[in-house]
C-alpha cells in the first residue's frame, strides 16, 4: 500500500466552470477556422484532458497529433531546458495549426515550440492555452485563446500534475503544503 499524498488541493476552478469555458473556446475556435481543417497539436502530458474535451466540441474538421516535451522533469522546479521527447507524425507544411497547451507560465516552453513549429512551414500557427499565468512571464507570448487567467500559484488537476499526481482530478485546484516550497520552486 502506498502512502496517501500529504498535500491538500483547494478548488480554484470547478468542473462546471471549466466545462462552460471549454465550450466557449470551442465555439470561438470553430468560428475562426470555419471552412478549414485544423491540425490540433496537444503538448503532453498536461493538455490531454483539455484537448479531448475541446476537440469534441469543435465543429470544424480536425487532425490530432501530440508532442511530448520535457521542461520540468518530475519536480516543479524549472530546468530552463526544453527538449522534444516525442515529435509529431504530421507534416505541418501549408496547414492551419493550433497548438494546445495546459499552462503558459514563464513562456519558455511555448517560445521554443513556436520557433520549432514555425520552421516547418505551417500556413497559420495559433496557440490555445487552458491557463495563463501572466505574472510569471519571462518572454513575450500572446496566446490566441486563453481559458483562464490564474494567479501565481501551483495548480493541479484536469490533466495537470505535481510529480505526476492529481492529473485525474475533474476540477483545477491550488496545491497547498508542497514539499520544498521556496521562491523558485515550480
Ligand atoms: P513555462 O515554460 O514556464 O511556460 O512552463 C510551462 C509548463 O510548466 C506547462 O506546460 C506545465 O506543464 C508546467 N507548469 C507551469 N505551471 C504549472 C502549475 O502551476 N502546475 C502544473 N504544471 C505547471
Ligand atoms: Mg506542460
Please state the CA-atom Rg, rounded to the nearest Å.
16 Å
- Write the H/E string, N to C: EHEHEEEHEEEE
Percent of residues in helices comes to: 10-25%
Number of domains: 1
Which ligands occur here? inosinic acid, magnesium ion
CATH architecture, by name, is: 3-Layer(aba) Sandwich
Strand content: 25-35%
Give start-end ranges of low-pLDDT stretches.
182-186
Q: What's the main sheet like?
A: 6 strands, mixed
In terms of quaternary structure, the protein is single chain
What is the name of the CATH topology? Rossmann fold
Number of helices: 3
The CATH class is identified as Alpha Beta
Q: Describe it for me?
A:
With 186 residues, the chain is an alpha/beta fold. The chain has one domain (6-175): Rossmann fold, CATH 3.40.50.2020. It contains three helices and nine strands, in the order βαβαβββαββββ. α1 crosses α2 (48-57). The two termini are 28 Å apart. Bound molecules: inosinic acid and magnesium ion.
Label this structure with key terms:
186 residues, alpha/beta, Rossmann fold, 6-stranded mixed β-sheet, 21% helix, globular, binds inosinic acid
